[in-house]
Amino acid sequence: MVEGTMMDVPLTLKYLLERARTLFPRSEIVSRAADKALHRSTFGDLYPRACKLANALTRLGVKPGDRVATLCWNHTRHVEAYLAVPCMGAVLHTLNLRLHPSDLTYIAGHAGDSVVIVDSSLLPLLDKFVKDVPSIRHVIVVADGGAAPAGTLDYEALLAAEEGSFPFPDLAEGTPAAICYTSGTTGHPKGVVYTHRSTMLHTLAVCMADTMGIRGQDTLLPVVPMFHVNAWGIPFAALLTGAKLVFAGPHLDPEGLLDLMASERVTFAAGVPTIWLGILAHLDREPRRWDLGRLERMVVGGSAAPPSMIDGFSRRHGITVMHAWGMTETSPIGTTAKLRPIHDDLDDEQKLAVRSSQGYAAPLVETRSRGEDGRVLPWDGKSMGELEVRGPWVAGAYLGGEGKDRFTDDGWFRTGDVVTIDADGYVRICDRTKDVIKSGGEWISSVELENALMSHAAVLEAAVFAGRHPKWDERPIAAVVWKPGAKATEAELRAHLKGKFASFWEPDLFIEVEAIPKTSTGKFLKTKLRELYGDRLLDR
């Protein structure tokens, strides 16, 4: 019998911390503060500060397995917590600052957070729920030049009193590293616990050329918040490769982001479609104002991106937008929409159709879809069913054993996304299972209708949702937000859709709205639209 002769080296985040210190000490981290001043530090600064934070947390009684929460924007000190907390054996819990205080009360209590690191600008939010979470013993304030309030601890003062070295333990790779919670649009949010191993494998995948392709020459701007699935793993990828990191802090307006991209010569940015729609509108209005010659690619995820947006960036501004799909439960990268040699002979319109899909599975991730009758569906590009995935960074359970119905008996995660998968493995999301419109026994994809409407020159955003109908059970209603100074008639919108879909897909009603309600992660909140307008068809 032959035994393997390879070293058994645990995959833990301690490796990233050591690698950043030894190989990339001069790589920069640039953070824009609340007052818009830029703070510059390096990976070389990161190691001793992470050690100081670990020492301070230990002195406060944080032990291996304890949960340390952050309620912070994207900035350097948040990166310090990203490393210090899991590397000392504790568990990082990033709190979503866009959630309602009642949700934060539930999440922090459910996770059993013992310490919260909070930006001073977010103290009013913390005050609304911290007293209702008895497990929280200490509040550490990132004061940004001011003073931490009485009864709290000042982040910089804590670190100043500590040594710049710490005996980070050799952890088992299955040790919990971080917790993120789902957005909880229905029911309570559910916790997903990432391990050191799952995070390291995800980091390696993110750096591969056929996923995000992050490399040492890059300057990365993760617009996606660090509380949203660990900023899609981008901070960890920067530490692995030595790429420069740029953080926008609380300033996420299109103009401010464009200024930062230009001044810091960003090569790679990532965020949700609503961010990029605003940026595209600004670039279209003032195409010569910003020099984005270094910006090679932008990753868009979180919800389906309109093909017109992907095409607009490419045709009018020479910027490649890469579509990706993932969830809190998938760490998040599950699929990426890269062209392959099989697409070389396609025309531009056909290539755009591929690029606007959700793409094919990232390495080590598997995909399949299942119909309402429980049958696994063929990869024919037509059969619509619920997407199921599995892989080494896909959740196999929720914290506390909740939501068992989301996991199949044979080990797959049920995503809740209704998709088709074509013969080459490219996934195309048609809807969420809770949002798909079932009209007279037929399924109508709200996502495809939205993308078509947002390709109209006057439409900034469009959300299609189910309205109650006395005969057909459900019929589509479209809520439309106009671009500044633009407008279209209902007849013009119908003409724009004509011929693109079966006639029964056409919305029964168009509603003009000032803004479409969104979830804490920037997705259209269709439950709110149904609540506000879902009975309109019954009144006609």
Commentary on this structure:
This protein has helices spanning 14-23, 43-59, 76-87, 101-111, 123-127, 155-160, 196-206, 234-241, 254-263, 273-285, 307-317, 348-355, 446-453, 490-497, 526-533; strands at 28-32, 38-42, 67-71, 91-94, 113-119, 138-142, 153-154, 176-181, 191-195, 219-222, 244-247, 268-271, 297-300, 320-326, 333-336, 360-361, 366-370, 385-390, 413-421, 427-432, 437-439, 442-444, 459-469, 473-482, 509-512. With 540 residues, it is of the alpha/beta class. Among the domains are: 14-252, ANL, N-terminal domain (Rossmann fold); 437-539, ANL, C-terminal domain (GMP Synthetase, Chain A, domain 3). The strands form five sheets. The protein has a nine-stranded mixed beta sheet, with helices on both faces. Strands 7-6-5-3-4-8-9 form a seven-stranded mixed beta sheet. The protein has a four-stranded antiparallel beta sheet with strand order 17-18-19-20. Helix 7 packs across helix 8. The model has no long low-confidence stretch (mean pLDDT 93).
